[in-house]
Write a structure and sequence with these properties.
This protein is α/β, with parallel strands linked by helices and 284 residues long. The chain has 10 helices and 9 strands.
């Protein structure tokens, strides 16, 4: 649900959703120097939130703003491709981003990829490679990247009767390409949701994951501007939304070379979404 509190993100979110039609990946020719590996904390399983009021799918935006010796931030990457973009991919448009994935590895950055089922089908080897790397986790971004509400930045709409099936179709696509343990998180295309969407997905047992920092990387060509927007917005417990798609987010990989060292200089520890959610669950 787009609320007044999130209208300040409308432009960036609109660009992100517009990537439905052109999302590709953010490549680079030069590799950054290796960095000390972040410690990825092992858990018994990915954390989820309890159902919301009336049993609705719970929604996670950011972890508590607690002051700790090492405040955390989660960098997330949407691997978008829609159900009808096969001809464009066949014609040579790139919706993947191997350079960005390689940069995350070289910088030793834990990250969460929100992947559409259609993307996994188009790039099965890359999807499997991301899914088997313990540095990363793969979450659900729908199968089709169609909206789960009306009037979501011009995206086609999934009917309420088909919402859960669309989500489950993505999980099926993940299993078919060899992603054995996707995490039970769902990101709504365009970030658009309402009670009807939360009700439709509730039987699937997922936690919906939004964000509190928009990178502005969709269609951006200025890596410094993307880095500044992220660094200006990050707070302890933040979740940052970025893209792992070359043609529509060409500056992201270069921006990461600034973002990651600067965050570490500020004392932030980079984590996956599962750790952020784990820190938000009630104790006891």
């Amino acid at each position: 649900m787009i609320t007044p509190a999130t209208r300040r993100l409308t432009t960036a979110c609109a660009l992100s959703a517009l990537a439905l039609t052109t999302l590709g990946a953010c490549g680079s020719d030069t590799a950054p120097a290796p960095a000390p590996r972040e410690r990825v904390r092992a858990t018994e399983g990915p954390a989820t939130l309890a159902p919301g009021p009336a049993g609705l799918t719970p929604v996670f935006k950011n972890a508590p703003r607690t002051k700790t010796a090492a405040p955390t931030v989660a960098l997330t990457f949407d691997a978008d491709m829609t159900a009808d973009q096969g001809p464009r991919a066949a014609a040579g448009e790139r919706f993947d981003n191997p350079a960005l994935v390689a940069t995350l590895r070289r910088l030793n950055v834990p990250a969460t990829f929100f992947m559409t089922g259609r993307w996994a089908e188009e790039y099965p080897a890359q999807a499997k490679d991301i899914g088997r790397d313990p540095l990363f986790e793969v979450a659900n971004h729908s199968y089709s990247h169609y909206a789960f509400t009306k009037n979501c930045y011009g995206l086609p709409t999934v009917p309420a009767s088909g919402m859960r099936a669309d989500m489950e179709r993505a999980f099926t696509a993940f299993r078919k390409v060899g992603i054995e343990r996707p995490v039970p998180y769902f990101r709504f295309p365009g970030g658009c949701y309402d009670k009807q969407a939360l009700r439709a997905l509730a039987p699937g047992g997922v936690t919906a994951v939004q964000w509190d920092v928009v990178s502005g990387d969709a269609f951006a060509t200025d890596a410094d501007a993307v880095a500044k927007q992220v660094l200006d917005g990050v707070r302890p417990g933040s979740v940052v939304v970025m893209h792992c798609t070359r043609s529509a987010a060409p500056a992201t990989e270069r921006a990461l070379r600034t973002i990651v060292p600067k965050l570490r200089e500020r004392g932030f520890r980079l984590v996956r979404v599962s750790e952020q959610i784990g820190s938000a669950r009630p104790r006891g």
